Every structure is written in C-alpha cells, then in structure tokens.
Amino acid sequence: MSKEVLLKIEDLKVNINNNEILKGLNLEIKPGEIHALMGVNGAGKSTLVKTLAAHYDCEVTGGKVTFKNKDLLEMDVSTRANEGIFMSFQSPVEVPGVNNSYFLRTAMNAKRAYEGKEELDAMQFLKLVKEETNKFDIDRKLLQRDLNDGFSGGEKKRNELVQLLMLNPDLIMLDEIDSGLDVDAIKIVANVINSMLDGKKSILMITHYDRLLELIKPDFVHILSDGKIAKTGDYSLALELDEKGFEALGINNANS
C-alpha cells in the first residue's frame, strides 16, 4: 500500500512584483521523505517555499496545493504554522523589543491551543528548551535576547534550530540554512534535522552545496529551471550536478 501524500503541488503559478516566477510547478511529498531543491539563482526555489509559507511577496495566480488533504492556499500564515509547516528563512528578520523566549513560548502555545492541548507555563517551557538544546550544545543565552536583534548569521541559524526543535513541525522547509556556516555549524544543523526524522516528518530543503546533502541524504533531488522542475533524481543527481554543472545536465540557466 502506498504512503499517503503530505504535500501535493499541482501546476502552481506564482508572481512576485508582477513577474511570473513559478510557471506550472508540480511536486508531491510523502511523509518521511527528504526532498532537495537545487538550481541557479532566480529559478524559483525560494519563491516556492515562501509561497508554501504564505509570504506576502508571493501572489498565486494558478494551480492547487494540498497539505494533509486540506487546501493550503485557503489557510492564512498562522494556520499553516499550526498545521505543521515550518520555514527557516535565509535571513530571519530582526525584531527589536520582542524577547526571543517570549516569542517562542507564545508560538508554541498558539500551536498547542490549536491542537487542543494545555498551554505551557514559563517553567515547563524552560525545562523543554533546556532538554532539547542540551542534546546539541546550542547556547540558550540566545533566548534571553530580543528576537534575532544583533544576531550574527550563525546565531540566527542556531535560533532557527531552537524554534524547529520546540515547534516540532511535520513539514520542515529549509531555505539555504547552510549558507555562510562553517563545517561545525553545518554538522549541528544536520544533527538536529536527522534527530527529528521519525518516518513521518518530511523535509524540503534548498541548498547550493553538497556538504549539507552529504549529512542529510535526500530521497529526491529536484533541479528547478525557469519556474518548473526540469529534472528529478536521487542523491546521485546532486553529485553529478556538483561535478558537471547545470549546462552539462541540459539545464537552462536563464533566470526567471
């Protein structure tokens, strides 16, 4: 018996600033699968994950997206998060004046309320954070500061990992989380992601680098070109791309 489908994208068309970026993209993700998106800048990778996360830049002009057999495009951003979608941004926004710990506990309790669970008090929250961050040697002092305010690139990425661990989503979308990180930091990212793989959670990750894919082996590698998936394969496709480049694989390098 085949697995149910977690996310199904059919003929998705998306504009940003009146420019068509996604031009009829199709993708299906089942529970427990790891999918990697690769492609030149402008191919539509970030536009896809931003659209799934309900980013205000993205205007859907056609197509259909279902998540857990529900119409994703009818959900607002908070409903999508509460349904189990998590987006790790390339450059998380800085929010001075909003305590990081308060922000995260509020997000967790919003999701718990949505699921009909009791809210966590401050002590329960801190206990959970301590348990999770201790596993991966992540500095909890980040939570004492304002949300991403004055954070280095590496600190922002670590903070995203804390959010990921605590919110425990079903679909994890990573938009170049390895960008600008050293080898040790990439290992922490991979350790966190791999620890969450339980056969149910799925991953959709964007990366230009093979080093993250070595640590988080994808089941499927998709190469985007001009707003559509031009080629799909397994991990060996990423290796081939790294060795030969886009042109050798017959991928159109035109930016969208």
UniProtKB/TrEMBL annotation:
Residues 7-251 form the ABC transporter domain. Keywords: ATP-binding, Nucleotide-binding. One of its GO terms (molecular function) is ATP hydrolysis activity. InterPro entries: AAA+_ATPase, ABC_transporter-like_ATP-bd, ABC_transporter-like_CS, FeS-cluster_ATPase_SufC, P-loop_NTPase. Pfam families: ABC_tran. Belongs to the ABC transporter superfamily. Ycf16 family. This is Fe-S cluster assembly ATPase SufC. The gene is sufC.
